[in-house]
Design brief:
The complex is a heterodimer of chains A (295) and B (164). Chain A has helices at 6-26, 31-61, 65-102; strands at residues 113-121, 129-132, 145-148, 151-159, 164-168, 175-180, 186-191, 198-204, 214-217, 229-237, 244-251, 260-264. Chain A is an alpha+beta fold and 295 residues long. In chain A, strand 4 (151-159) and strand 5 (164-168) form a beta hairpin. The N and C termini of chain A lie far apart (72 Å). Chain B is an all-alpha fold and 164 residues long. Helix content of chain B is 73%, strand content 0%. Chain B has helices spanning 10-25, 30-34, 39-50, 57-71, 77-98, 101-125, 136-160. The chains are: A alpha+beta (295), B mainly alpha (164). Chains A and B meet through helix 1 and helix 2 of A and helix 1, helix 2, helix 4 and helix 5 of B.
Chain lengths: 295, 164
């Protein structure tokens, strides 16, 4: 073994690595390799998370009685408020379903969710990703949307057997279709690679988007469920001469503080006749004024 | 004389790699992430340095592949990078053993830097880089600084558990 020339081995490694990279980028053939290694990598993530877990456990042990009572009272109040909201929601939902039936569009039912805990973050500053403690064995699938109580977080990009990786909406390679809640103007929301900064792409200067506008997911692209809050517009600047307005937004989800996330389990394809004629990407922003004009 | 004996302690080597993997993903704040040493590469370099007849390019490739899945990189990115790292160390280990401390750290800086460069090129080609290439030098510098204490710890481990 010692006599074997390491240069040949390096060449073999080079060829193997290039083949692996090409297959990983262009096909699904090496998914089993990733999945298999996942059994070995997930324990490391769990172990790395252990100090956080035990600190939380210790904190819970040392909680004082008055603190607990206080938080219980607060939660009870919160439940009361939420219950009141839910009462109205039931009526609204029924009404919504009836109206959708009138429009001949499918009713979007409640999606069931799975709760997962964040057990790791990507150490690479170039990427914005999380690791969660649910994987293929809990029926997590690639492409599932991941939410937090305040809004959308991202999507599952890799489902290992015991853990999964979530690509955050702030990653520089991430973009999704959103619309302004106030008036339905649609645009593409792209990440910048920095936490808590997003950009709206290709928005014409004249589009009606103001600071403070809530951006919600449109469901176009079939990946994210429709109607979840994603971000809030934080800055709008118009430059004379520039083709598009420069609009920045801030995610509504607390990406850096949240410890538990929700995975949307079953997502019915929502058919939207009023939005069908358009491709989900491309010029979603510039065509907001053009209502369906074909047929 | 040691080389005549049967290899032993593969389990211990694997455990050191798992500990290194743990250090690779332990959550730090965003500033410290920049200067996170390449733990797994350092451990690999140490084992290549002390057991060049056993640990080489193939180990580098497999350890790198493991790291690829661990951090969710393109499969092959770190595998290639670590294969290069092990290869360079195989070429340099005889000199490395007689180098004084400072010079050893300098060599480690170069090795980690060039291995990082390979990984950066791969990442760049798949469009997942955001920051300019010189940023890989931060972790290379951190690796050079941590090399000596890590060597001491690993040498103790090697002698304690009779790895050869």
């Amino acid at each position: 073994m010692y006599s074997a020339n390491p240069t040949y081995r390096l060449l073999i490694a080079l060829v193997l690595a290039v083949v692996l990279m090409a297959l990983d980028q262009r096909s699904k053939w090496v998914e089993p390799v990733r999945y298999g290694f996942g059994y070995l990598t997930a324990p490391v993530h769990y172990l790395a998370h252990l100090p956080v877990d035990s600190a939380r456990w210790l904190g819970r042990l040392s909680e004082t009685r008055s603190n607990l009572m206080e938080s219980r009272e607060r939660l009870e109040r919160q439940v009361l408020i939420l219950e009141q909201k839910v009462q109205r929601l039931a009526v609204l939902q029924a009404e919504n379903v009836r109206l959708r039936e009138l429009l001949n569009s499918s009713a979007n039912l409640d999606a069931s969710v799975l709760v997962a805990e964040i057990i790791g973050v990507d150490p690479d500053p170039n990427r914005q990703e999380l690791v969660i403690n649910k994987g293929g064995q809990d029926d997590v699938l690639q492409g599932q949307a991941v939410l937090e109580s305040q809004g959308l977080i991202g999507q599952v990009v890799e489902a290992g057997p015991l853990s999964a990786r979530v690509l955050l909406i702030t990653d520089a390679s991430h973009a999704m279709s959103v619309q302004v809640n106030r008036n339905g103007v649609r645009a593409i929301l792209a990440g910048t690679g920095q936490g808590s900064r997003l950009r709206l792409l290709y928005v014409p200067d004249t589009a009606d988007i103001r600071e403070g506008d809530l951006l919600v997911s449109t469901g176009l692209g079939q990946l994210y469920p429709r109607g979840y809050p994603v971000a809030r517009v934080s800055r709008v600047s118009h430059q004379s001469g520039a083709a598009f307005a420069e609009i920045e937004a801030r995610p509504t989800a607390r990406l850096d503080r949240v410890s538990h996330v929700l995975l949307v389990q079953s997502m019915e394809p929502v058919s939207m006749p009023d939005m069908a004629p358009e491709p989900p990407s491309g010029e979603a922003g510039s065509s907001q004024e053009t209502l369906p004009d074909d047929e | 004389m040691m080389n005549n004996e049967r290899p032993a302690g593969t389990g211990v080597i694997l455990v050191t790699f798992v500990v290194a993997a743990l250090l690779e993903v332990v959550p730090l704040n965003q500033t410290l992430d920049w200067v996170r040493p390449e733990w797994m590469l350092l451990v690999l370099l140490y084992w290549v340095l002390s057991l060049p007849h056993r640990i080489g390019v193939l180990w580098g490739f497999l350890v790198g592949l493991y790291l690829d899945v661990l951090v969710g990189a393109t499969l092959g990115q770190w595998a290639l990078s670590y294969a290069f790292g092990a290869y360079f160390m195989l070429a340099a280990y005889k000199r490395m053993r007689v180098f004084p401390l400072l010079q050893q750290s300098a060599v480690v800086f170069l090795l980690v830097g060039s291995a990082n460069l390979v990984a950066y090129l791969v990442q760049e080609s798949v469009g997942r880089t955001l920051y300019p290439p010189f940023t890989i030098l931060y972790s290379a510098a951190a690796s050079a600084v941590i090399w000596r204490p890590m060597c001491t710890a690993l040498r103790w481990t090697q002698h304690r558990f009779l790895v050869r």
